């Protein structure tokens, strides 16, 4: 933000005005296109833009340079009134030295720093005012630890104040506890629901495993039965084989014995071989 044009004694050259605030340049910086701005004005502009506000050419902070020396000299020589002229200061000096004057200007005033106090104070009134400012807070001299306003000095009652503070604290804590409890209950509910769902899921898995087991057991049972049947069949087969072997060996024995040979021979002689084979 520049210096208000009204504070200057003479007419100001257009070239010494900031292109943004239109006041006289304060801490000026110059773009490569030679447009000059207060450093606060152009830095604030470049936060959101990257062009010169006057001609829209590309511009970034590192491209900014100090003002040309001849312009700087013109600026420094401008005659400006003290900032406290409304308070009665008649001083007019060049821009280069105005800060030095204002730092020690006897008409300088500042607002009381106490919150709520609007008093404007000269240098000599400052300390004196702070002692009596009714908005100033000091620690209670009785050691309750509370900051009290000057105006409350007499009416302040440590015990009552502490009791109020304690009550306030207690109700705040109760509120917080209730809130936390509600949150915890919600959390517990959610977990409970989750566990119930999980349990149901596990239960259904157990059920399906159980039915799979039953089926497998049935399979084993039927396998066992068919094995048993096979064994029986094998046993019967073995018995039949033994019987056949026995018959075969009997037949062989009969064939090799002499009666049998004769009988065969007789049979061959007879005219009725069918009869003989029946014997
Ligand atoms: Zn400006
Ligand atoms: Zn420009
Ligand atoms: Zn002054
Ligand atoms: Zn005050
Ligand atoms: Zn107290």
From TrEMBL:
Pfam families: zf-C3HC4_2 (PF13923)
Ranges in coiled-coil conformation: none
PROSITE patterns on file: ZF_RING_1 (PS00518), ZF_RING_2 (PS50089), ZF_TRAF (PS50145)
TRAF-type domain boundaries: 101-144
Record key words, sorted: Metal-binding, Zinc, Zinc-finger
GO molecular function, one term: zinc ion binding
Positions annotated as zinc finger (TRAF-type): 101-144
GO biological process terms, semicolon-separated: regulation of canonical NF-kappaB signal transduction
Xref: InterPro entries: Znf_RING, Znf_RING/FYVE/PHD, Znf_RING_CS, Znf_TRAF
Record carries keyword Secreted: no
Stretches assigned to the RING-type domain: 18-56
Name under which the protein is recorded: E3 ubiquitin-protein ligase NRDP1
